[in-house]
Amino acid sequence: MYAIRYCLLPLFLWVFVSGLTYAQPYDLIIKNGRVVDGTGNPWIHTDVAVQNGRIVRLGTFAATDAKRTIDATGLIVAPGFIDVHTHVEGSLEAQPSAPNFIFDGVTTMITGNCGGSSTNIRTYFDTLRMQGISVNLGSLIGHNTVRLKVMKMAFREPTAREQTEMENLVEQAMKDGAVGLSTGLIYTPGTYARTSEVVNLAKMAARYGGVYASHIRNEGQNVKQAVEEAILISREARIPVEISHFKVASKSLWGKSTETVELVEAARREGLDVTVDQYPYTASSTSLESIVPSWALADGDSAVLARFRNPVSHAKIRAEMLDGLAKNLRKNYEYAVVASYKPDSSFNGMSISAINQTLGRKNSAATEADLIMELMERANLENVQMVYHTMSETDVETIMRYPNTMIASDAGVAKLGSGMPHPRAYGTNARVLGRYVRERHVIPLEEAIRRMTSLPAQRFNLMDRGLLRPGYAADIVLFDEKTVSDKATYDQPHAYTTGISWVLVNGTPVVENNRHTGQRPGQLLMGPGYVK
Fold this sequence. Notes:
The protein is α/β, with parallel strands linked by helices. 36% of the residues lie in helices and 19% in strands. A seven-stranded mixed beta sheet has the order 3-2-7-20-21-22-23, with no helix packed on it. The chain is globular, with a radius of gyration of 25 Å.
């Protein structure tokens, strides 16, 4: 009897070990690709194994080791791209598949930028969690949103009570999962805030491990002073700072990006944690009202309309607008192109100068300034989205060469065929990889990927993303470095990126052989101050 037992034991062990051998320990293996891991190090030949939404090993594996194998021969395998500057409130709920981002390799987004966010971060996240999203998402709490809730459009300093109320709103947002505080100091009502107001709010975000991200107060004639203000806030609030869509948006200052970059680098030498992001285009995109003096937009719609209609205040507004044109070496508003105008979609894609001529009006900058106010009034002062051609290619490349520059789209989820949006909504990352890496050799491939992955993950405390490393979330992009291209242009902006054939979010293919699968495996990413 005992002899029989001892004879059976080796057989049992053989069956057990054999079962392990032929088991499939991984959900997915990516084989034969050139892995760029996100650190900036050179690419290597290795396979990537994924299990339960995580990267578990890098090495050499047999195809039989996984339930599914992706052959990445001829492709780059990289961490999913992290877009640190988006505006997806509303548009992501409408299109949770986020195709313009996904086809551009984006697996994670930070929204709530430029001072505008959801008022209640927890409720916003709960809504997205219930419907499901194709991308991972974190959010900042917007200063403009907070100020508007407490002070409406008041053009003054807050009272002590109002300041405390705003600080409490920031604190609650940080506990609800916000990754930091954002400002849009060029927009109302944020433009009415003094630096001290922002410092105190930033201190609250810093208390919970947050970041301060800023659309600075001026990106044109006073860009240096605006950069210095952001650095001052970092110093006084003791908070890391991300300067959004870093640029020089004044023709008279083209070439001065070397000086603004040096301001940032000097701050870092001082020990301040300041970084920047940019979109790789020479045109910006924002509202039509940004052209109008901010004082004219104070105190609500009725007050604004009264100023537009009053001959004295109207003339003052026009004079300041024309002065701004002259300082920026502009003769008219040919550089300002309508992206979306609801009252008359025939204006979409036309410059203010072209619209003025179409309407048969006098060909002058003064008449065009009047037209801008009329267009705003006709739109009931609702947002009129514009594209502004204000930057130089030299400055774009100078900023891109700066090692602490991240890549960001400054876009929302685009509705295919709707309006004339900025092409950055579709092609930001592919444009860097195609135009600036492959064609113009501005930065190497590995460095470009670092700017899109580990650098933004570090900036926004995304501790398990941005690298191809065991234990990290399996956010992975496969692309052909020889063909990856942005197809969206200013004239034809609705065109998805090509050359990115696979996109995995938390281990689930969302783009598979160039097609969106419709899967929604995205997660909500909470800041370090999150309290359940």
